[in-house]
Amino acid sequence: MGRTVRIGNGQGFWGDSPDAAVNLLLGGPLDYLGLDYLAEVTLSIMMRQRLRDPRKGYATDFIGFLRRALPEIVEGGVKVITNAGGLNPAACRDEVIRLAREMGFAGLKVGIIEGDDLLPRLSELCRAGHHLVHMETGEQLCQVEHNKVLSANAYLGARPVVEALAQGAQVVLAGRITDTALVLGPLAFEFGWTAEDWDRLAAGTIAGHLIECGAQVTGGNYSRWWEVPALWDVGYPIVECEEDASFVVTKHPGTGGLVSVGTVSEQLLYEMGDPTRYITPDCVADFTSVRLHQEGPDRVRVTGARGGPATNTYKVSASFHDSFKAVGQLVVSGPRAVEKAQLCAEIVWRRLARAGVTFPPEDRLVELLGTGVCHPGVVESPHDPPEVVLRIGVRSKDRAAVSRFTLELAPLITSGPPGVTGFAGGRPKVQEVVAYWPALVDKAAVDSHVRVSVETA
Hints:
Layout: E1 4-9, H1 20-27, E2 32-35, H2 42-52, H3 61-76, E3 79-82, H4 89-102, E4 109-113, H5 122-127, E5 149-154, H6 159-166, E6 171-174, H7 181-191, H8 198-211, E7 238-242, E8 247-250, H9 261-268, E9 278-279, E10 284-286, E11 291-296, E12 299-303, E13 306-308, E14 313-333, H10 337-354, E15 364-369, E16 387-396, H11 399-405, H12 412-415, E17 420-421, E18 431-442, E19 452-456
Parallel strand pairs: 1-2, 2-3, 3-6, 4-6
Antiparallel strand pairs: 1-7, 4-19, 5-14, 7-8, 8-12, 9-10, 10-13, 11-12, 14-16, 14-17, 14-18, 15-16
Helix pairs in contact: 1-3, 3-4, 6-7, 7-8
């Protein structure tokens, strides 16, 4: 058996466990630590932060993690790959270097990956005929008022990660790269996989997919949850990959959770369209080609991955300001609680109409939690439950109309049916609705010379 590369993932999304990545470092040997902070809506949040402060726009939790973990990272020689750079990898790098100096690690090498952010180039791309067509509706992002577009980022692949590592970076800060690149990049670098090693690239892609959501592959969110021991202490995942691209999914000994063919299978199918064509910037992976084998306790070996050539496009994740919304809730208790909650909703709509404010049915939300609304038609509704939660909301491009709706819930406490309570949170707040816009763009239109800088403070 040849050399094995061990890669852990301690962050499945921005807001995941604050202790998971630290525990991965302390729990046993690692070569690489991946940290995935970006979901589709996260970049629009980062844009709002950067507009308020040009020094922001990245995942600030990453700095807090480094403050706790930098000694173990440097002294253990662990390399960190993360998309925490968000919309401002350079500012994130500056803060990492400042922190390293403060903590006495002035020689830390930090690489940044840029080029994914298309928002500053949106007008240029539109003029060149790259209309960023919505993959579901066929609409063109170029027809949306540009001041309403909050973010537009191309999903870069693993190659810039390889380049940063080749230049000696111990910490690689990216913006919007694929989640799978956090694993595939280190593997391609360590084993020298070329851009045409389709089967190996597919295996690295599948390895990245399996651990990208953190504990979801080690027992979290598992359908047979009662079989998972000590879920409170769940161990976050590690892949042990060999040069032939076979790998084992596991976790540190002594941690809670479970790694089984079942947990790995469920994560394999997570967010899956066509399992024979999982498209990334690096390859097209056939997820149906792999074979799973329970090699031992909390060890599942994955073999047989097949892949094919990459497409000539990048996926683009864009977001734009669409409308406004407000959602509030009340607890309705006592006999005939369902009928009383339904009456409450009817009262709200009638009082709004009397005030000259109406919402079409598709822009109204009425849910009675406790009556089976989470799985309609699957679970039989209980007969006359002792209490329900009325969740009611609206959406509109008219902020004033949404604001008027927020005034109608509190009056139900004294001018509605009896048993209304649970309004301690006050009036609902008007919130901006940020809509997601998936599109494709030719790779040639994106800066193929991704800017990677590796600095020694």
